[in-house]
Write a structure and sequence with these properties.
The chain is α/β, with parallel strands linked by helices and about 450 residues long. The chain has 4 domains: about 130 residues, Response regulator (Rossmann fold, 3-Layer(aba) Sandwich); about 160 residues, P-loop containing nucleotide triphosphate hydrolases (Rossmann fold, 3-Layer(aba) Sandwich), CATH 3.40.50.300; about 70 residues, Helicase, Ruva Protein, domain 3; about 55 residues, Arc Repressor Mutant, subunit A, CATH 1.10.10. It has 18 helices and 16 strands. Strand 3, helix 3 and strand 4 form a beta-alpha-beta unit. The longest helix has about 35 residues. GO terms for molecular function: ATP binding; kinase activity; sequence-specific DNA binding.
Length: about 450
C-alpha cells in the first residue's frame, strides 16, 4: 500500500462522534474528511476519492443504507464500513448484503475502529494486487495474440486450428519478424498439450559445440565443464511442445540425431549409452530456404521431409498491407495500457504512410516503430507530425519514387469497388462498366482481395 496516507471519509450527524474519530484516525496516521449527512457525503464524493468511507446508519434525510446504495450506483470503489448503534444490527447486516465491507457497533473502542480499518486496508491491497495480476496476465495473453484481417492470414489461422489437433511436426517458414513463434505458440495453445510445457530455443543462438548438450542433455563428466548430469530441452519439454527456431542453422553433424528423435521418440544424452523415451511435439521455423539447402547438399533431405509433414508459410507484411494499420493500433494500445494512457487515434495520413512503407523487418519492425512513436505522441491523436523524423523522410522518398504506381493501383481498386457497388455485385455488368473482360475483373478481384 506504500507510505501514502489513506484517506477516510467519516459520515455522521453527531459532531461529537466525528470529533472523536478525527482524534483516533489522525493519531493512527489516516487523513480524514468529515460529512454531517449523507447528502453532504455525496457532494464530497463528486470531487474527491477516498480509500475508506466510515458511515453511520441512522441519519436524517439520507440514512446509511440509502447512502451506500447511491455510492454503489455512482461506481465509487471506496471500501464502506457502517457504524451501527445498539439495536440496529439487522440494518447493519442488510448493509452488508448491499455491498458494505463490515460494520462496527457503537459505542466502540478506538482499537476496534483501527483494527477494522486495517483489515479493510488489507482487503484493498489484495483487490488491487488481484487487478494488477489480471492485467499482467491479460497483457501476456495479448502479447501472444495474432492480429490480422487479411484473407491469407485468416486461411493460415484456420490451418493452425486444424493442425493443432494432431501431433505431426510442423515447419513454419517466413522472413525474420513475421511472427513464426506466435504461430508455434498458437499451435501449442490450441492442442491437447496446452497445459504442458512450451519450450522455445533459437538454434542459431547456441554455440555449435553446445547444441547437442542443450537439446539432448549430457552425463556428468561427458566433457570438460560437465560437473553434473543435465537433462536436455527434449526431456524438459516432455508431454508438451519443443519449438526449434532458426532450424536452418542446425549443424550438419546433429541432423541425424534430431532425425532419430523424430522417428524413434527417444533421446540419448551426451556421454550415455542408453536412450530415454520422450513424448514431444516438434515445431520448427526458419527464414532460410531449406529446399535450396537440401539441393546444395547442406541439409539432409530425410530430415527436411520429416520436419515438413505440415508446412506453414507466413507472408511478409508488405504482402498483407490490410493488416498493417490493425497491427499498429494493437501495438499502440498495448503501449498505452502499459503506461496508463488512452490509446491515440491514428489519422488517415498516418495510416497511408504506414501502409505505403515496405517494412523489411515485418511485424517486429512495426512493433518497435509504434513503441518509438508512442514516445513522441503525448496527445489522443497520432498524426503525421508525431511520427519520428526517419519515417517522414521515408514517406517523402517513397512518394517521389513510387507515387504514380501506387496511385494507379489505388485508383484501379477504387473503381472496381465502385463498379461492383453500382451493379449490386453483378460482376458481368461491372466488367462492362469498367470496359474490361469478366476474366480480367475476376483476376483483379482476387488480386486485390475485394469482398
Amino acid at each position: 500500500m506504500g507510505t501514502k496516507k489513506k484517506k477516510v471519509l467519516v459520515v455522521d450527524d453527531e459532531t461529537s462522534v466525528r470529533h472523536m474519530l478525527r482524534l483516533v484516525l489522525e493519531g493512527a496516521g489516516y487523513e480524514m474528511c468529515e460529512a454531517g449527512s449523507g447528502t453532504e457525503a455525496l457532494q464530497f464524493l463528486q470531487d474527491n476519492s477516498f480509500d475508506i468511507i466510515l458511515s453511520d446508519i441512522r441519519m436524517p434525510e439520507l440514512d446509511g443504507l440509502g447512502l451506500l446504495q447511491q455510492i454503489k450506483e455512482l461506481g465509487v470503489d471506496s471500501m464502506v464500513i457502517m457504524m451501527s448503534a445498539y439495536g440496529s444490527v439487522d440494518t447493519a447486516v442488510e448493509c452488508l448484503k448491499h455491498g458494505a465491507y463490515d460494520y462496527i457497533s457503537k459505542p466502540f473502542k478506538p482499537d476496534e475502529v483501527i483494527l477494522t480499518l486495517r483489515k479493510a486496508e488489507e482487503r484493498i491491497r489484495l483487490q488491487r494486487e488481484n487487478v494488477r495480476l489480471r492485467q499482467q496476465l491479460s497483457q501476456k495473453n495479448e502479447s501472444h495474440k495474432i492480429v490480422c484481417r487479411s484473407k491469407v492470414m485468416d486461411r493460415l489461422l484456420t490451418l493452425v486450428t486444424r493442425v493443432a489437433e494432431t501431433n505431426s511436426p510442423v515447419l513454419i517458414t517466413g522472413e525474420t519478424g513475421t511472427g513464426k513463434e506466435l504461430i508455434a505458440r498458437a499451435l501449442h495453445q490450441q492442442s491437447a498439450r496446452a497445459k504442458k510445457p512450451f519450450i522455445a530455443v533459437n538454434c542459431g543462438a547456441i554455440a555449435p559445440s553446445l547444441v547437442e548438450s542443450e537439446l539432448f542433455g549430457h552425463a556428468r563428466g561427458a566433457f570438460t565443464g560437465a560437473v553434473q548430469q543435465k537433462a536436455g530441452l527434449f526431456e524438459e519439454a516432455s508431454g508438451g511442445t519443443l519449438f526449434l527456431d532458426e532450424i536452418g542453422e542446425l549443424p550438419m553433424d546433429l541432423q541425424p540425431k534430431l532425425l532419430r528423435v523424430l522417428q524413434e521418440g527417444e533421446v540419448r544424452r551426451v556421454g550415455e549409452n542408453r536412450s530415454r523415451k520422450v513424448d514431444v511435439r516438434v515445431l520448427a521455423a526458419t527464414a532460410r530456404d531449406l529446399r535450396k539447402l537440401v539441393a546444395n547438399g547442406k541439409w539432409r533431405d530425410d530430415l527436411f521431409f520429416r520436419l515438413a509433414v505440415v508446412e506453414m508459410h507466413i507472408p511478409p507484411l508488405r504482402e498483407r498491407r490490410e493488416d498493417i494499420v490493425l497491427l499498429a493500433k494493437h501495438f499502440a494500445s498495448g503501449v498505452a495500457a502499459r503506461e496508463g494512457r488512452p490509446t491515440p487515434e491514428i489519422t488517415p495520413g498516418v495510416a497511408d504512410t504506414l501502409k505505403n512503407y515496405s517494412w523489411p523487418g515485418n511485424v517486429r519492425e512495426l512493433a518497435n516503430f509504434m513503441e518509438k512513436t508512442m514516445i513522441f505522441c503525448r496527445n489522443d491523436v497520432l498524426d503525421l507530425e508525431t511520427l519520428p523524423g526517419e519515417m517522414r523522410r521515408r514517406d517523402r522518398d517513397a512518394t517521389h519514387k513510387y507515387s504514380l504506381k501506387e496511385a494507379a493501383l489505388r485508383l484501379e481498386k477504387e473503381y472496381i469497388r465502385k463498379a461492383l457497388a453500382a451493379t449490386d455485385g453483378n460482376r458481368t455488368q461491372a466488367a462492362k462498366l469498367l470496359e474490361i473482360s469478366l476474366r480480367k475483373l475476376l483476376y483483379k478481384i482476387k488480386e486485390y482481395e475485394i469482398e
